[in-house]
Design goal:
This protein has helices at residues 12-25, 49-55, 58-61, 94-102, 110-120, 130-150, 167-176, 180-192, 221-240, 243-249; strands at residues 29-32, 66-71, 85-90, 154-155, 158-162, 197-198, 210-214. With 253 residues, it is of the alpha+beta class. Keywords: Aminotransferase, Membrane, Pyridoxal phosphate, Transferase, Transmembrane, Transmembrane helix.
């Protein structure tokens, strides 16, 4: 069960309902909780299935089989290259546990283990690295503020920003055989050094152009990226009003 569908944080009552259903039907709950550190919506918080399960009493806590998944790639570190993750197994049949343990082959890289330790046990106030950690976590407040204005375009570590183009620009892109949002992203990279993903890479409604912008970046970087994006887009808007001039320059959006 994926407890974090796009733009949604599962509440306690919903979790309890799932647990009751699993208990009634004798099902194993395989819970994907890798986005538990990425809840930015004001007034919402992550609640683990394990916590709710044990607060529902022995009727459920002693019989429902639960496997919770967490990963470095989607945590506060957001580093999939370190290849670190874990499973927390609750109430599993002993015979099945023997099989699960047999799947453990070797050990993960030391760097991945260190990163996992930081994610699970983050620095405390008295630790030398706490100031750096606090700067990274401080980014959450900025993301929360942006979420207030862009909630319909927000998905975990990304903003999906939509934009419109005029008919002349669309025709120009079609003659080149290039999707309009792909060309937009290419010029954004060339002119501002910002690398974003085009919506057409992942599928989108026809003529509903958008780009994907990662927001899990070092402190201060997000503000600069947004400022450059704004400057770039305003320049393109100016080109919209001078299509002939833009065509001469070889750039029309």
């Amino acid at each position: 069960y994926h407890s974090h569908t796009p733009c949604h944080v599962q509440d306690r009552s919903s979790i309890e309902e799932v647990i009751r259903f699993a208990a009634t039907e004798g099902l194993l709950l395989l819970v994907d909780e890798v986005y538990q550190d990425s809840v930015f919506q004001q007034g919402r918080e992550f609640i683990s299935y394990k916590k709710v399960l044990f607060e529902m009493g022995q009727e459920y806590s002693e019989i429902v089989e639960l496997i919770s998944i967490h990963s470095l790639s989607n945590g506060i570190i957001g580093e999939c290259g370190l290849r670190g993750a874990y499973l927390e197994v609750i109430n599993m049949d002993p015979a099945v546990m023997v099989f699960l343990k047999s799947l453990q082959i070797g050990s993960p890289a030391v760097l991945g283990q260190l990163a996992m330790e930081i994610m699970i046990n983050p620095p405390k106030h008295e630790d030398p690295s706490y100031e750096t950690y606090a700067q990274v976590r401080g980014q959450d407040d900025k993301i929360t503020t942006l979420w207030t204005y862009l909630r319909f375009f927000f998905f975990f570590f990304f903003f999906f920003l939509s934009f419109q183009i005029n008919c002349c620009s669309l025709y120009f892109c079609q003659t080149l055989g290039v999707e309009a949002d792909m060309l937009y992203c290419q010029w954004l990279l060339e002119e501002e050094g910002i690398c974003v993903g085009a919506g057409s890479e992942n599928g989108q409604v026809d003529k509903n152009y958008h780009l994907r912008l990662c927001i899990q970046v070092p402190p201060g970087t997000l503000e600069e990226v947004l400022a450059r994006l704004r400057s770039f887009h305003l320049r393109l808007l100016d080109r919209f009003s001078h299509p002939e001039e833009s065509r001469t320059e070889g750039k029309t959006v």
